[in-house]
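Q: Sequence in, structure out?
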Amino acid sequence: MIKTFASLFALFLMFSCKVENKEPVQTTNALNDSISKTPIKKAPFFWEGANIYFLLTDRFYNGNPENDQNFDRVEPTGILRGFMGGDIQGITQKINEGYFTDLGVNAIWFTPVVEQIHGATDEGTGNSYGYHGYWAKDWTALDPNFGTKKDLEVLVKTAHEQGIRIIFDVVLNHTGPVTDIDPVWPEDWVRTGPICDFTTYENTTACTLVENLPDILTESDNDVELPDALLAKWKEEGRLSNELDELQLFFERTGYPRAPRFYIIKWLSDYVNDLGIDGFRVDTVKHADEKAWGSLYEEASRAFETWKKRNPDAVLDDNAFFMVGEVYNYGISGGREFDFGDKKVDYFSNGFTSLINFELKGDAQLPYEDIFNKYSTLLNTKLKDKSVLNYLSSHDDGQPYDKERKNAIRAANVLLLTPGASQIYYGDETSRSLDITGSEGDATLRSFMNWADLDSLPQTKQINLHWKKLGRFRSKHPAIGAGKHLRLAKKPYVFSRTFVKEEFKDKVVVGLDLPKGKKSLWVKGFFGDGTKLYDTYSSTEVEVKDGKVILDNDFDVALLELAQ
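A: Exactly. Output:
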């Protein structure tokens, strides 16, 4: 007989979550207790197993309402196509609150914060402003809607103090659209046509992605002058002389031609040099000449090492600069090369440490073992010493896994336990809606973060707690993302991960789809009899006997590590 109101409430939560989410979810109190007892130990950081959180700067959290309106951006827009107030200070506030640490996040990637076009443009879905950050007007300045360079400096410093890396989202392929108040860049800088057909290498790179999105001539080695509009802007802002002096020193040092791509490479690497940015996420990679990316990586890496030498006390570790590319539709099965149809390009040999993997969202329907074994095999053969960044939903993928958010628990299991680096898209961990009434195109994927749901809806709290448990375990154990996978038992499903690099060794065992109540997990051949293990999911210490461990709880997940 149930004797307490608390017990009744806990049962109600479990029942209601099963009905609405169609998945077993654990009680809030049980998971809260478990989290509070298991602080994340310090582990070496490896980019190939990173747990990266990706957010739209304007849609995450409004830390400074005073910067919400700039440049007379007051025209009515289509639904979710205007600025909504999120900013750099908002990200910093959430870092300080421990939101990312609680999720086990060890790197944050946010959309570009450089100055955007001032005007609005109609994409056929109503007016749209550059709230997303991909419509650059001036790479050398931040957009005041996002914040100031000082805000960015504080963000990077705050993140680093908590062991979190910062990935800067960069665009080298195109400028922002042309509007009545945002003129086109000179013709020796950009092409304004034809629109890409995406059937050959040539008509994927030497073209504009869409109409009215001027394409930087990244293949050109011809010297070009700075646009008059940019010079006038710098002069008005009182920094013309300084910008010109810095460019002179850059081109004298490098010997590069004053071609369009090298100006932008200089401007982007400055953020690394000045602030200690840890990595770049590079937009629209396959639409630019690949030789640009090697130069970008070289200059950013040089800037990173320069910053480290100037700031020895702020250096997190000896990891090299990280660069991950968005080669649209690249899949891990392709190995090192992307096939344009008439030409193959190895972007890993052109500056990239990692590529975003568009394949996992389809693989997510497969049995866990099929996914994990496939990724472990590929990462240790075709992609040995390289990596991929896995995701299930993003800002511009209209066919994500679980768009209706009915399988949030499975989504966490797949994303956070699949070998490779993981990309949590803001709101994955809170089931933020990806289908907003009245919105069109990719805007529907970009609603404001659903903080209110996290504060008020029991089911959202349950989902979030599950993501926290897996994320923290992943962060604590590089073996999850960077290690080798081995199935130990088919039913109940138990697998191991092992990671060895130089003097560091990490090994863990995970159980999924476990039965309720008393359960036996087979670990023979991986952990010997007498080994004391700790299940971080249930906060339970166990001992290996006869090649197995026994757990007795209602959780269907076990996360086993060596007991401390």
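The domain at 5-482 is CATH 3.20.20.80 (TIM Barrel).
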